[in-house]
Write a structure and sequence with these properties.
The structure holds two protein chains of two kinds. By secondary structure, chain A is α/β, with parallel strands linked by helices. Chain A has 17 helices and 14 strands. In chain A, strand 10, helix 12 and strand 11 form a beta-alpha-beta unit. Chain B starts with 14 loop residues before the first strand and ends in a 7-residue tail after the last helix. The relative contact order of chain B is 0.11. In chain B, helix 9 packs across helix 10, helix 11 crosses helix 12 and helix 13 packs across helix 14. Chain B has 15 helices and 15 strands. Chain B is globular. Classes of the chains: A alpha/beta, B alpha/beta. At the A-B interface, helix 2, strand 8, helix 9, helix 11 and helix 12 of A face strand 9, helix 7, helix 9, helix 10 and strand 12 of B. Strand 8 of chain A pairs antiparallel with strand 9 of chain B, so a sheet runs across the interface. Chain B: GO terms for molecular function: ATP binding; hydrolase activity; kinase activity. Chain B: It comes from Umbra pygmaea (Eastern mudminnow). Chain B: In the C-terminal section; belongs to the phosphoglycerate mutase family. Chain B: This is 6-phosphofructo-2-kinase domain-containing protein.
């Protein structure tokens, strides 16, 4: 192959080689047989000897995209750009795509002394224009290091980006670096939505700290006007070769243009399913089960007497909430269904909400696992998120399994989800933006309901313990996670049980 | 013990019993299952949905209708398409020429309107009496007046309406369309190619003058997706519920770029040879031979930009290794989980779990192994794989028997009854190539011997049958 060809070869993902190249390789391949070995943590089969062709041995999630992607927000102030940026970033990180938001407004706040007034944003304010452009460039630079040095896969460039000229700058930057670009434009002409927006997130912005509410609103509206003069929305004709989604009036209408790959397709699907209607999501585990009492994991047992009491109390609590059109979801396991039965309302069973499959360790106590599988027990403590039980699942698998549940939760309004410890940790991590390292150690005790209410850019959490005693099932990470540790060290953090 | 007054319930929770076939827990009285509340159904819609296509002839409406219907049925939403052109053909036995479609042909208009109403009647029948959940009304529906008739009809019957409009002005796409599906239409059975094309182009012209595309302003209260230029662009308006959201997602992922999908099982495994199901064993000697042959076959096919997918089980990965190209491992492609029956021979299952064995024969699609999965579960697990297969181009999927049956059923539009009995023998590659409204299948047996792992449904499926009756269709093994 010529030099330029071989350069392209290494830059792209390894694709099918030329005919001669593979013929040569197969000759040697047929002679030796690749031995496989199973990675002890994730239980993934990989070749024993690494060969050039197996750089991408594959993980349990498919490759979303070959090159880093820049998501570029477009829109006047108070159109929900930051809301979308943060929510999308949270979702992508949760499904395993390293993503980060770059909010140019934040760069501006770091660069300038303190915000005085909307005059900073006047299109004829030359001094300010220079600063704002410099901030955008600085943010782009950081996007570059995020991709090249921090293994990021998606960067969300959160700014107004309302002029063709600014978008051109971003496009050339991306082209020079080999990044894909996907625009998200939010258009809204409903004054009610805009004022609600301003109330929810602008009044509390660092820009308006110490300001009177009415003054802040007046100033902000003038700020919007500054942008309106030069705003050029993405154009059907001129921008026909760009990849983008236009969101009209918080989702009543979408225009989607030139979706290039899997990740962009997933992003579009996600954006089309989220809404801003106020609602609450209630997360709880099933009532205490027979196996919980004896410190055993997994299985499919019924509720203990205290668990039954909890189910009754849950019914009372939910009725007191007086929720309009509450949906109730359970898993396919007896204990969540028994819990839901006590509510006396229709419920839906989701297999996807079943507890993590502990494979060969199903129905064992931690003491037994330590006794029979000490190495597995240690590996789990070393990396609880990626660890897969033999013939079972990992938290990472759980997240993939739960993705359709999250998507449907986004579509729904008031929902009560009756599930299990590991499952609840995964769902909670999504709503509260917890990392893969924190997720498996989130505290989700029995007989406690978590009420999540979206507010501003995040989620308000209320924890309600329904006053019925239950065993503790939370096992903290012990200090010693070495494979050669003493049983006592391994079992140090096991909670009490019968 | 507690001071919580809410603990006292007016009604006590119902007893639960586990349905023996699907292993679903449901409330029961005196041991008998009560009328059950919902089990997760994919279609989260309370009322039936009417999908209405819109567009000039040769814009892919029937292609979309058939494909969407196939997808929805596969994921478990009973769907049927109603092609008004077919009703017209049944009514007007012989097609003479495009003049039938002339906007001033009163006779023609009367017949066409009647056909549409007859079709709507059948839609009503399907959605209200026959248990259908989605009906696809496939016609041009190019005038606002016709669409109003349909929306009124839907309102009267409490159906939701979702429009799918296909807009395309690319003459090459339209020409290719005509060649692929119009020339072979019953309408042009006695024509030569040039005559057919000429007539069809005039037919399109008949519609053009009265065509009123869905309008952003005038139709802002309707739920619809406008597909422009075969998917370069989409306009989506007022998606009302889960099923419409899934339909939009699906339509946005399909494409018509020519490509082929290769489906194959792993090479023969050590457990296959012993007649055991499931497990995670490696390839037998013959299995390894097959893997090498597969590698050769793939090279000879000289496929552009081939992707290779495997499951996370040793035997598929070993097979892919011999193909010597990069591959991706999908957990979703793992074989069906046989729960407590993992690694058993059929003889052992009959011995230890004769009831389970019989239940499986009674309803192989819905039967769930204790602590395992059913084919129905498999389909749900495989849906993201299918979605990604739609996005991809040339691809080789190395998987397992039950998994391959599910994927094949999707591409070949097989019912839930047929699916678990589709023949997917070892060491045979199926090459699927989309053509016209369906899929061409080429079966390539790579000439390496292997055990047969296909067990037909025996005649006697009663739980009281004799062991021999149960085992009569078990294939030979070591």
């Amino acid at each position: 192959m010529s030099q330029t060809e071989s350069k392209k070869e290494t830059k792209k993902e390894t694709k099918m080689d030329t005919k001669t190249e593979t013929k040569k390789e197969t000759k040697t391949e047929t002679k030796k047989e690749t031995k496989l070995t199973q990675n002890p943590l994730e239980k993934i089969w990989i070749p024993f000897l690494s060969s050039k062709l197996n750089q991408r041995r594959g993980s349990s999630v498919p490759q979303f995209t070959n090159s880093p992607t820049m998501i570029v927000m477009v829109g006047l102030p108070a159109r929900g750009k930051t809301y979308i940026s943060k929510k999308l970033t949270r979702y992508l990180n949760w499904i395993g795509v390293p993503t980060k938001v770059f909010n140019v407004g934040q760069y501006r706040r770091d660069a300038t002394q303190s915000y005085k007034s909307y005059e900073f944003f006047r299109p004829d304010n030359q001094e300010a224009m220079k600063i704002r452009k410099a901030c955008a460039i600085a943010a782009l630079k950081d996007v570059c290091s995020y991709f090249t040095q921090e293994q990021g896969q998606v960067a969300v460039f959160d700014a107004t980006n309302t002029t063709t000229e600014r978008r051109e700058v971003i496009l050339s930057f991306a082209k020079d670096n080999g990044y894909k670009v996907f625009f998200i434009e939010s258009l809204c002409d409903d004054p009610g939505i805009i004022s609600e927006n301003i109330k929810q997130v602008k009044l509390s912005s660092p820009d308006y700290v110490g300001c009177d509410a009415d003054d802040a609103v007046a100033d902000f509206l003038q700020r919007i006007d500054c942008y309106k003069i030069t705003y050029v929305p993405l154009d059907d004709e001129k921008d026909r070769s760009l990849s983008y989604i236009k969101i009209f009036n918080v989702g009543s209408r979408y225009l989607v243009n030139q979706v290039q790959d899997h990740i962009q397709s997933r992003i579009v699907y996600y954006l089309m399913n989220i809404h801003v209607t106020p609602r609450s999501i209630y997360l709880t585990r099933h009532g205490e089960s027979e196996l919980n009492l004896v410190g055993r994991i997994g299985g499919d047992t019924g509720l203990s007497p205290r668990g039954n009491k909890f189910a009754g109390a849950l019914g009372g609590y939910m009725r007191n909430q007086c929720i309009r059109e509450l949906k109730v979801w359970t898993s396919h396991m007896k204990r969540t269904i028994q819990t839901a039965e006590a509510l006396g309302v229709p419920y839906e069973q989701w297999k996807a909400l079943n507890e993590i499959d502990a494979g060969v360790c199903e129905e064992m106590s931690y003491e037994e696992i330590q006794d029979r599988y000490p190495e597995e027990f240690a590996l789990r403590d070393q990396n609880k998120y990626h660890y897969r039980y033999p013939k079972g699942e990992s938290y990472e698998d759980l997240v993939q399994r739960l993705e359709p549940v999250i998507m449907e939760l986004e579509r729904q309004e008031n929902v009560l989800v009756v599930c299990h410890q590991a499952v609840m940790r995964c769902l909670l991590a999504y709503f509260l933006d917890k990392s893969a390292a924190e997720l498996p150690y989130l505290k989700c005790p029995l007989h406690t309901v978590l009420k999540l209410t979206p507010v501003a850019y995040g989620c308000k959490v209320e924890s309600i313990f329904l006053n019925i005693e239950a065993v503790n099932t939370h096992r903290d990470k012990p200090v010693n996670v070495d494979v050669d540790r003493e049983p006592g060290e391994a079992l140090l953090t096991v909670p009490d049980h019968i | 013990m507690t001071s919580n007054e809410d603990v006292i319930m007016a009604t006590s929770p119902r007893e639960l019993t586990q349905n023996p076939l699907k292993k679903i827990w449901m409330p029961c009285k005196n041991g008998m299952p009560e009328k059950h509340i919902s089990q997760r159904r994919v279609c989260m819609t309370n009322c039936p949905t009417l999908i209405v296509t819109v567009g000039l002839p040769a814009r892919g409406k029937t292609y979309i209708s058939k494909k969407l219907t196939r997808y929805l049925n596969w994921i478990g939403v009973p769907t049927k398409e109603f092609n008004v052109g077919q009703y017209r053909r049944d009514c007007v036995k012989i097609y003479k020429s495009y003049e039938f479609f002339h906007p001033e042909n009163e006779e023609g208009l009367k017949i066409r309107k009647q056909c549409a109403l007859t079709a709507l009647n059948d839609v009503r029948q399907y959605l209200t009496v026959e248990g259908g959940q989605v009906a696809v009304f496939d016609a041009t529906n190019t005038t606002r007046e016709r669409r109003r008739t349909i929306t009124r009809f839907a309102e009267q019957n409490s159906f939701k309406v979702f429009f799918v409009e296909s807009v395309c002005e690319d003459p090459d796409v339209i020409a290719e369309n005509i060649v692929q599906v119009k020339l072979g239409s019953p309408d042009y059975i006695d024509c030569n190619t040039e005559e057919a094309i000429e007539d069809f182009m005039k037919r399109i012209k008949c519609y053009e003058n009265s065509y009123q595309p869905l309008d952003e302003v005038l139709d802002r209260d309707l739920s619809y997706i406008k597909v422009m230029d075969v998917g370069r662009r989409y306009l989506v308006n007022r998606v009302l519920d889960h099923i419409q959201s899934r339909i939009v997602y699906y339509l946005m992922n399909i494409h018509i770029t020519p490509r082929s999908i290769y489906l194959s099982r792993h090479g023969e495994s050590d457990l296959n040879v012993k007649g055991r199901i499931g497990g995670d064993s490696g390839l037998s000697g013959r299995g390894k031979e097959f893997a090498t042959c597969l590698g050769k076959f793939i090279q000879e096919q000289n496929i552009r930009d081939l992707k290779v997918w495997t499951s996370q089980m040793k035997r598929t990965i070993q097979t892919a290794e011999a193909v010597a190209v990069p591959y991706e491992q999908w957990k979703a492609l793992n074989e069906i989980d046989a729960g407590v029956c993992e690694e058993m021979r059929y003889e052992e299952i009959q011995e230890h779990f004769p009831l389970e064995f019989a239940l499986r024969d009674q309803d192989k699609y819905r039967y769930r192994y204790p602590k395992g999965e059913s084919y129905e579960d498999l389909v749900q697990r495989l849906e993201p794989v299918i979605m990604e297969l739609e996005r991809q181009e040339n691809i080789l999927v190395i998987c397992h028997q039950a998994v391959m049956r599910c994927l094949l059923a999707y591409f070949l539009d097989k019912s839930a009854e047929e699916l678990p009995y589709l023949k997917c023998p070892l060491h045979t590659v199926l090459k699927l190539t989309p053509v016209a409204y369906g899929c061409k299948v080429e079966s390539v047996c790579l000439k390496v011997e292997a055990v047969n792992t296909h067990r037909d449904r025996p005649e006697n499926v009663d739980t009281s049958r004799m062991p021999e009756e149960a085992l009569v269709t078990v294939p030979a093994h070591q």
